[in-house]
Amino acid sequence: MKNTENWLALLRAPGLSLQQYHNLLNIFGSPEKVLAASAGSLGKLGLKTDTVSAILTPAAELIEADLEWLQHDNHHVITFHDARYPELLKTIPAAPPLLFVRGDPDYLQLPQLAMVGSRTPTASGKKTAMEFAAHLSKAGITIASGLARGIDAACHQGALQGIAGTVALVAHGLDIVYPAEHRKLAEEITRNGAIVSEHPIGTEPLKAYFPRRNRLISGLSLGTLVVEAALKSGSLITARHALEQDREVFAIPGSIHNPLARGCHQLIRQGAKLVETADDILEELAARLPAELPCPVKPDDDTPDGNQSSQALDPDHEKLLKCLAYEPVPIDELVNRSGFAASEVASMLLILELEGCVVSESGLYTRVA
């Protein structure tokens, strides 16, 4: 525990950047030796006076919350020198010197795919994200995302249906859950995956921390899949980090009328791989995956293949389904397109929704099969 305290004390030193932290590790070899260094040797490295003072006389009370948090079950701190620290994450610029982990750290050693997208997705986008994540998790790929509203949450939920679990990377201390409505989801991830942060206990979810967090989502993963994203989107930041980290970037195309497809289309124009099925990703990553995935299973029949078709629908339902687009449509537009009465359309939409052929959101209907 004393060794962990030294790492935490150095993390809490004011004004010490990640680059400087790693520089000190490279020069002195360990936080213990850094804390035992002289003021002169530290000053020569360009550290600020208050930073040097904090290193020479670390305030024990600053790390009390971290140490108390560590006393609970399934709470861990993984240092950069720890064998449990993910090798892939070590290779990114400004890798975190410490990772705070709630859950099972072993999930960090599994092959990961980052999945990200809009916080305000379409119903179809959420369904696609959940299906892709479920299929990939069943195939032995752990899904990494950011525990945000929308696509992130759908990805975690889908991955929990599989066997490879999910990892959530967050932009705050692990003593809180943000957003608060994801508390139950966070508990499920803790039992079947891990929640990870580079921030010590007590850190609030400040706006500036979220773009920094995105480099960890991509850095932990072999590739990043963007499901739905506007042109100005945090998901595109994650994709940019993935490119800079020499990772694969995948994007799911959408309707030209859907503004949340434009970010994906831009990525595809810039060289991201267009994917229509989860198996497209598995095939692309095959050369970078272990010969045998830790928990492989035979893909089942619910693979999202982009070519699903309705089963045993009567002709009227088939006709209405053909009138539906893959972008949201109001019911009155379907009445005009189909020629059916509004009551007939409403009844058939209910059946199509129960069959999983369409989804509804805010009075709009979208075809998903």
Quick take:
This protein is α/β, with parallel strands linked by helices and 369 residues long.
Explain what the structure shows.
- This protein is 41% helix and 13% strand.
- It is α/β, with parallel strands linked by helices and 369 residues long.
- It has three domains: 1-67, no CATH class; 105-288, Rossmann fold; 315-367, Winged helix-like DNA-binding domain superfamily/Winged helix DNA-binding domain (Arc Repressor Mutant, subunit A), CATH 1.10.10.
- Helix 8 packs parallel to helix 9, helix 11 packs across helix 12 and helix 15 (315-323) packs across helix 17 (342-354).
- The chain starts with a helix and ends with a strand.
- The relative contact order is 0.10.
Which key terms come to mind for this protein?
369 residues; alpha/beta; Rossmann fold; Arc Repressor Mutant, subunit A; 3 domains; nine-stranded mixed beta sheet; three-stranded antiparallel beta sheet; 13% strand
